[in-house]
User: Fold this.
Amino acid sequence: MVDAAGFESVAQCPRELHQMMAAAADGLGSIALDTTQLNMSVTDPTAWATAMNNLGMVPVGLPGQQLVSDSICVPGFDPGLNMMTGITPINPMIPGLGLVPPPPPTEVAVVKEIIHCKSCTLFPQNPNLPPPSTRERPPGCKTVFVGGLPENATEEIIQEVFEQCGDITAIRKSKKNFCHIRFAEEFMVDKAIYLSGYRMRLGSSTDKKDSGRLHVDFAQARDDFYEWECKQRMRAREERHRRKLEEDRLRPPSPPAIMHYSEHEAALLADKLKDDSKFSEAITVLLSWIERGEVNRRSANQFYSMVQSANSHVRRLMNEKATHEQEMEEAKENFKNALTGILTQ
Assistant:
């Protein structure tokens, strides 16, 4: 490439340039080849393939026709696919290739804006400065510490600025340039922390007493911690109650309660022992009374009569069982004989 100065020098000496071009033409004429030697058959595919191979180009012929062997062609060239093989394909979805924009940064700096109030104005700090530091958040924190207040800041001005974060339940202002603000809910504290680092200016005054840089931080208050403990205990009670209901639901049903022994209950129980439908319930009550030690000299006769009734009832049941078993054996024998006769026929 020739710059502007070079063009000017060439324009100033056209005679020398003409002489140089003539000498170059003479040199090319001395090494020129006979045009007749470059003539070759157009229909000869081998000649074209050799020429293109010498020029470093991949030979391309008619569809399905291979001009030269694989040993002469460029290594790794597939004639069927008409492309190079053995090269790892590039993923177009890789960021940085221009096809897909790079992922956005994970951390985006929050741009704070100027906040206008009736009696003051809040100016954000320089975004290049590090964010204000905060202490570890206490459990159930609803109170914030606000430092760096202007000397002329009143409780009404503080109320006006921080009531935008939520309902304020109490403001405890010190004689110095700080105060404590308690909110109704915990999430309001996060909104108040956002104001940390702002510079407060009262009205349009530039006096030092009317300007200050706010520092908002978590405060550890006994009221917040007490409410948090109360909530934790209430949640623990609800959890225990829920578990008890779940256990009661999964527990098998308890047996009916056994009434206490009395002469009247003993007379009723004696009648139940003679009833087939109530015998199972009555015998359970009788065994419970015996295990409790209700048998004594005064009640021995009643218990003896109840045990005799139970014994006679059990003996009758055993006799009925034996009778049914005998009938079952006879029925089996009859069935066996009838089936044998049928099979025999």
